[in-house]
Amino acid sequence: MTIKDIAREAGYAVGTVSRVINNNPNVSAAARARILEVIHKYNFQPNSNAKHLKQQASQGIAMIVKGTHNMLFASVLEKMQTECTAAGYNGMVYYIDENDNEVDRARQICREHKPHGVIFLGSDRNHFGPDLEELGVPCLLMTNTAATAAIANLSSVSVDDVAAAARMVGHLLDNGHRRIGFIGGDLTSSQPSSARLSGCLSEFSRRGLAFEPTRQYTVARYTLAGGYQAMEHLLKTLPDLSAVFAFSDIMAIGAMRALQDHGLRVPEDVSVCGFDGIELAGYLSPRLTTIRQPAERMAGRGVAILIRCIEEQSDAVHELVPYELLEGESVLRLPLADETH
């Protein structure tokens, strides 16, 4: 009789059984009663693999965060830590510089601290390959998809960046905008930026509109200063633009400041929209129109998936969570008859 057998007969997940065995309070009374009933029925000794693993090391789950400027990461990280604690794991956070290799850091952490799993937040897709399996523990990529990576121990949770970006571009086009500038990350390393630009191009193509990458797309760091500098560059390459879509709210806020410093009003002169749905976006004046990524839901699903992989040795899972377009006050509706916009 194993913990999986107990879970199967009780009708609950292995993780729930594990929490009951470890006397974790975050289990409903009904679930606890049913699981204990099955445990007593088979005289199951609570020395399951999951419990044994947790007793072997207190580090639990390593969370490697790349870059500290993304406010979305702060929300995701807080929820992940809460979820890990509730499941009986200790979430250990490691911050690394944007230029560091997160997989190399993970190797070091696994050697020194023996975590049961690793979560990557804000990662460079170029650093992930089959050698990730050498870590010997389940891994999870948060806010980026790893569905096409085909790495056996790497799961992922994200929104559909392609569809979400296409939706935002469609919103701008529906509001009469045609000369649209874009601010995003380095397309050779930023998977979200690459996917979001793909969605933008798809929507332009679907509507029979031309796109000029050298004029319309500007690379920036995911920071306020990055958004500011990119906006200044766009004002030179696309001086007649009517709207800007920044691939993060932080970059959008930096872009808004640059426009204001150049004497341009948002949205009267230039409309601005972002991506992430951070709390600050709703307190700006004007409120930022953005794509909201459900931070708490992503974090909850991510931790649940990783723990299942740890405790059940299950295959990698790639999950998309729903996004939402939040209409703020930063996009102006232009006369649709004016085809120059």
Automatic annotation (TrEMBL):
<dbReference type="InterPro" id="IPR028082">
    <property type="entry name" value="Peripla_BP_I"/>
</dbReference>
<dbReference type="Pfam" id="PF13377">
    <property type="entry name" value="Peripla_BP_3"/>
</dbReference>
<dbReference type="GO" id="GO:0003700">
    <property type="term" value="F:DNA-binding transcription factor activity"/>
</dbReference>
<keyword id="KW-0805">Transcription regulation</keyword>
<dbReference type="InterPro" id="IPR010982">
    <property type="entry name" value="Lambda_DNA-bd_dom_sf"/>
</dbReference>
<protein>
    <submittedName>
        <fullName>LacI family transcriptional regulator</fullName>
    </submittedName>
</protein>
<dbReference type="InterPro" id="IPR046335">
    <property type="entry name" value="LacI/GalR-like_sensor"/>
</dbReference>
<dbReference type="GO" id="GO:0000976">
    <property type="term" value="F:transcription cis-regulatory region binding"/>
</dbReference>
<keyword id="KW-0804">Transcription</keyword>
<feature type="domain" description="HTH lacI-type">
    <location>
        <begin position="1"/>
        <end position="55"/>
    </location>
</feature>
<keyword id="KW-0238">DNA-binding</keyword>
<dbReference type="Pfam" id="PF00356">
    <property type="entry name" value="LacI"/>
</dbReference>
<dbReference type="InterPro" id="IPR000843">
    <property type="entry name" value="HTH_LacI"/>
</dbReference>
